[in-house]
Amino acid sequence: MELKTIKKTAKELELEITGENETILNPVTEALFKNKDVDFATYMTDHPESPKRRLFIRVKKGKPEDALAKAVKQLQDEIKEFSKTVEQKSKSKK
User: Fold this and answer.
1) pLDDT tens-digit readout, 32-83
2) What is the pTM of this model?
3) Longest dimension (CA), the chain
4) 13 within some domain
5) Is residue 32 domain-resident?
6) Domain around 75
7) Inter-residue contact 57 to 68 (CB < 8 Å)
8) Residue 64 belongs to domain with CATH number
């Protein structure tokens, strides 16, 4: 995965992400929307077969890069919890 900053202001951040698709960007965008400080978040592509996507974030307050870091951390925690639950269920079936 490659990240390139396209635009960065006090309230907006636009990143070009190469090598990732909606599988990653959709959950990130959903996590961003759960943050009350995020005004708008979306990802886009010029063409479905293009390896490049753009992630755009606009915040009401705070820094957009902090909102992104918080969203990624939230997703990491959810995945750890899911993994733990699956492991527990797997052990209880034996």
Assistant:
1) 999 999 999 999 998 888 999 999 999 999 999 999 999 999 999 999 999 9
2) 0.87
3) 54
4) yes
5) yes
6) 2-89
7) yes
8) 3.30.1360.10
SS3 content of the chain, % helix, strand, coil (to 5): 45, 30, 25
* Number of domains the chain contains: 1
Residue 94 is assigned to a structural domain of this protein: no
Q: Is residue 55 part of a domain?
A: yes
Amino acid at 87: E
Distance CA 91, CA 46 (A): 45
Query: By C-alpha distance, which of 26, 18, 11 is closest to 67?
Result: 11
Query: Does residue 94 have a pLDDT over 80?
Result: no
- 8-29 in b/e burial notation, b at 16+ Cβ within 10 A? eeeeebbbebeebeeebbebbb
